[in-house]
Amino acid sequence: MINQHELLTTAARLLVDVHCVVVFTGAGVSAESGVGTFRDALTGLWSRFDPQQLASQEGFAADPGLVWRWYIERLTTIENARPNRGHEALAAMEKIIPEFVLVTQNVDDLHERAGNRHVLHLHGHIGRFRCNGCGAAYSLRAGDREALMPPCCTICTGYVRPAVVWFGEMLPEQELFEAWGAAERCDVMLVVGASGVVYPAAQLPAVAQRHGACIIEVNLEESALSELADITLIGPSGEILPRLLDAMYACEAKSAFR
Ligand code: APR
Prior knowledge:
Layout: H1 4-17, E1 20-25, H2 28-31, H3 51-54, H4 57-62, H5 64-80, H6 85-96, E2 99-104, H7 110-114, E3 119-121, E4 124-131, E5 137-138, E6 160-164, H8 173-185, E7 188-192, H9 204-210, E8 214-219, E9 231-234, H10 237-256
Helix pairs in contact: 1-10, 6-10, 8-9
The structure holds adenosine-5-diphosphoribose.
């Protein structure tokens, strides 16, 4: 039986020895910053709603004010949150891995605020806004946050909405193209805090594996991606990732003395 420490050391050695690493993150990486994940039951006043219903054209059409208020509340939570030690470890890894590509399903900006420079957001950005009708870009104005209804577009009178990808909508082409290409050429994919149940994003680890990459997973529990993983490190990413980074530094120090 291999213990967690040996798994972590093996994972660190892999990450230090290779050229190209893709990191693929889900909501779990932001959980320890106080940003709720999708499949954890919604809390408080949102507990009676299904996020998959709210994050959809149907949900927005049915009650634009409810969806608007849900996103503004989530945006406020994110703005008040801080990157956790897992985000910071990934930012440090970017500095020591020759080719490092960070692909996230998350709509928060915690990876960027932790210091990662090039983040591919497959599901958009909660802090950006656009018209649901004509796509015109918008910024929040004073009063929009407190409004009970979303602002109206000044061009086509459609409602303004967050620039995130809703269920049933297409992912941003350029980001998906870059993420797919990186998955095909990477030597290792590190999957962090992803349930692996939402496609096409969840396809990326299988694409990487099909092209010969090793898959390392960090999650609180087994996920739909665990059977693909060569190494699964169970635990909170805010604890596992800093330990993985320390083990990478130790591997580097050892090889420096060879
Ligand atoms: N550390 C590591 N993993 C964690 C932690 C943590 N502290 N907390 C939760 N997790 C794991 C959960 O075990 C789960 O596997 O993170 C995963 C979160 O899963 P989801 O809530 O499904 O989030 P995600 O995988 O990002 O969802 C994908 O679905 O709802 C859509 O667009 C939305 O981008 C989202 C997509």
